[in-house]
Amino acid sequence: MIRGYFLNRKQLTNVFVLIDSRIPPQAIDLEFINFLGTNGIPLSIIFTKTDKEKQREVMGNVTAFRQKLSETWEQLPYIILTSSATGHGRNKLLDYIDQINETL
Q1: How far apart are CA 64 and CA 86, in angstroms?
Q2: Separation of alpha carbons 91 and 99, rounded Å
Q3: CA gap 27, 69 in Å, rounded
Q4: CB of 89 within 8 A of CB of 58?
Q5: Strand locations in the chain, DSSP E?
Q6: What are the pLDDT digits (tens) for 3-46?
Q7: Could you tell me the CA-to-CA distances from 3 to 12, 42, 49, 91 in Å, in that order?
Q8: DSSP H helical segments within 11-89, as ranges?
Q9: Which residues are bridge partners to 16 per DSSP?
């Protein structure tokens, strides 16, 4: 059902894929992102909960995620790191949404 929605939704301008920054890359997340990319569905990756772990661990997981995607992607999707608790990345995300809306 979800795949059909993404494949048939003509007005879809961007899919925000939320990834928990506290954990290493998960096969299900990579498969979903690759499904979107293979089908030409625009997407961005939003890493969440960046305040919950040490920055070294968060960046290690983000780097590992980027490396896994680089195995199959020539150009990586737009990536934003966020925290709802601290507000980190909020303005960057809102600005990005404005940019997307301006292109419509």
Answers
A1: 24
A2: 12
A3: 11
A4: no
A5: 15-20, 43-48, 78-81
A6: 999 999 988 999 999 999 999 999 999 999 999 999 999 999 99
A7: 13, 14, 26, 30
A8: 27-38, 55-70
A9: 44
Distance CA 24, CA 63 (A): 9
Among 27, 88, 31, residue whose Cα is nearest residue 58: 88
Instruction: For tokens 């490396």, name the residue.
Output: 67
pLDDT tens-digit profile of 57-94?
999 999 999 999 999 999 999 999 999 999 999 999 99
Q: Is there a contact between 42 and 15 (Cβ–Cβ < 8 Å)?
A: yes
Q: Which amino acid is at 56?
A: R
Answering whether pTM is above 0.90, one says: yes
DSSP 11: T
Token pair 């007005």 is found at: 11
